[in-house]
Design brief:
The chain has eleven helices and 15 strands. The chain has 390 residues and is of the alpha/beta class. Bound molecules: manganese (II) ion. Manganese (II) ion (MN) binds next to loops.
C-alpha cells in the first residue's frame, strides 16, 4: 500500500434493499426464482466490485410464509458465497415490516420471529437490532459473534448501526437514536433503517424529512429500505428501491442497488466523502397488453377464442421483432376493455390464465377486467319523455 493510499483510503460497500425473497412462490417456481437470482446477482457483484460488506435495508423476505424449497435455495446461495469469499464479506441486515409480517390466518405470533433470525443463527448473516426501550447509552449494543446479538458493528473505519422496522414508533425513537450515536469518533457512520421519507412516493406514508434531518450530524450515510422506488436526498440519505418488481407498477420504477465508495482524506476537516453509483439489476420483462372487446360476447368460449387469437398475433409479432425472446418468458399483464361479456356467471379467470400459460411463452399472467360499464340511471329504464310529463 502506497503512502497516498493509506491517507486516502477507499472502502466500498453495496447497499441493497427490499429483495422480498419468496415472492411469487405460489404463482410459479420460475417467478419465485427471479427473486433468488437477484440475491445471487448482488452477492456476485460484491465479489466483482471487491466490496468490504453488504448492507440490506429490510424486507429481505416477502413474508414469514416461505416454502422449504425456496429457503433451502437461499441458504445454499449464501453458503456458497461465504465459501467463495472465505467469509471475508459480511452481509448485514435489518428486519423490515415484511420480514415480520404475521400470517397464519390472523393468529398473532407472540414472540418476534423472522427468517433473518434463523439465517443469523446459522451464522449466514448479521442481523442488527436494538431494544427500543433501553436508555440511549445502552441502545446500540456492540454485535458479538458469540451471542449473535447487537445493534452496531465496526468494520475497518466504518460503524454500522441498525434497528429492525420501528413502525409507529419511528418518529418517537429518532431523537433517542441520535443521542445514542457518538459524534466525531473518527469513524464513518452508517445507520440502517426501514422507513420512507414523506413525499418521495405519492400517497405512501413516510417520515417527514425535518424529523430525520437532526441525524445528519451523527450519520454519514443513512441507508434506507421500505419504499420500492429509488431516491437520494442531500448526499447522505439513500434508498435503492426493490431488487425485483414486487408488484406490476414497480416494473416502471427506478430501482437497483447502490455501490458506494467511501473516500477518506484525513487532511480535511470533513474527512469522509461518498461516491454512490446506482447499479440497475436485470429483471424479468413485464408485458402489458390490452384487448378490446368490440361487441358483447354471449358465450365464454367465444371470449377465450377471441383473446387467444389476439395473443397469437401479438406474440408472433413480438418474437419476430425481438421485443422478447421466448426463452426469457415475460410476465403478462392482460387488460380487458370494451364491451363487458354477458353470460351467466363471470369470466373464469383461472381457466383463462391456465389457457394462456399453456399456449404462450409466459411465466405468469395477471388479468384485469376494465370494461366500459354503462351506468344504469333512471333514464335507462324510463324514456326521458315520460319523466318530463310527471
Ligand atoms: Mn418492501
Amino acid at each position: 500500500m502506497s503512502i497516498s493510499d493509506s491517507k486516502n483510503q477507499k472502502v466500498r460497500f453495496i447497499h441493497a434493499s427490499d429483495l422480498h425473497l419468496g415472492t411469487g412462490q405460489y404463482q410459479s417456481p420460475e417467478r419465485a426464482d427471479d427473486f433468488l437470482k437477484i440475491l445471487k446477482r448482488i452477492l456476485d457483484l460484491a465479489i466483482n466490485k471487491k466490496v468490504s460488506f453488504i448492507i440490506l435495508g429490510g424486507d429481505v423476505f416477502g413474508s414469514l410464509d416461505i416454502l422449504p424449497e425456496q429457503l433451502r435455495k437461499i441458504v445454499n446461495i449464501i453458503k456458497d458465497f461465504k465459501k467463495k469469499t472465505q467469509n471475508s464479506i459480511k452481509i448485514i441486515a435489518i428486519e423490515g415490516n415484511h420480514d415480520i409480517r404475521k400470517y397464519s390466518r390472523g393468529a398473532r405470533i407472540k414472540r418476534r420471529q423472522s427468517w433473518l433470525r434463523f439465517l443469523q443463527d446459522l451464522d449466514l448473516l448479521i442481523l442488527l437490532d436494538i431494544n427500543p426501550d433501553a436508555p440511549p447509552e445502552n441502545l446500540f449494543q456492540t454485535y458479538y459473534n458469540k451471542t449473535r446479538r447487537g445493534g452496531k458493528i465496526r468494520i475497518g473505519n466504518v460503524i454500522i448501526y441498525g434497528t429492525s422496522y420501528l413502525g409507529r414508533r419511528t418518529e418517537e425513537l429518532l431523537p433517542k437514536i441520535r443521542t445514542a450515536i457518538t459524534q466525531n469518533d473518527g469513524f464513518f457512520h452508517i445507520l440502517l433503517q426501514h422507513f420512507g421519507i414523506k413525499g418521495q412516493m405519492k400517497n405512501v406514508p413516510g417520515i417527514a424529512l425535518y424529523k430525520v434531518h437532526p441525524l445528519k450530524d451523527r450519520i454519514n450515510y443513512l441507508a434506507l429500505g421500505h419504499y420500492h422506488l429509488q431516491f437520494k436526498i442531500g448526499g447522505w440519505i439513500f434508498n435503492p428501491g426493490s431488487g425485483e418488481a414486487v408488484s406490476s407498477v414497480e416494473s416502471n420504477y427506478k430501482r437497483g442497488i447502490f455501490l458506494v465508495e467511501i473516500n477518506t482524506d484525513s487532511d480535511k476537516r470533513n474527512k469522509f466523502s461518498v461516491d454512490v453509483k446506482n447499479l440497475t439489476l436485470k429483471n424479468r420483462d413485464h408485458l402489458w397488453y390490452t384487448i378490446y372487446f368490440p361487441h358483447i360476447f354471449q358465450m365464454e368460449h367465444d371470449v377465450i377464442y377471441y383473446i387467444t387469437e389476439k395473443l397469437k398475433k401479438k406474440f408472433t409479432n413480438d418474437v419476430e421483432n425481438r421485443i422478447f425472446s421466448p426463452s426469457q418468458k415475460p410476465i403478462l399483464y392482460l387488460v380487458l376493455r370494451g364491451n363487458k361479456p354477458l353470460f351467466s356467471g363471470n369470466l373464469d379467470l383461472r381457466f383463462l390464465q391456465d389457457t394462456i400459460l399453456k399456449q404462450f411463452p409466459v411465466v405468469t399472467t395477471r388479468i384485469y377486467e376494465k370494461y366500459v360499464e354503462k351506468i344504469r340511471t333512471l333514464e335507462t329504464f324510463i324514456p326521458i319523455n315520460n319523466i318530463a310529463k310527471i
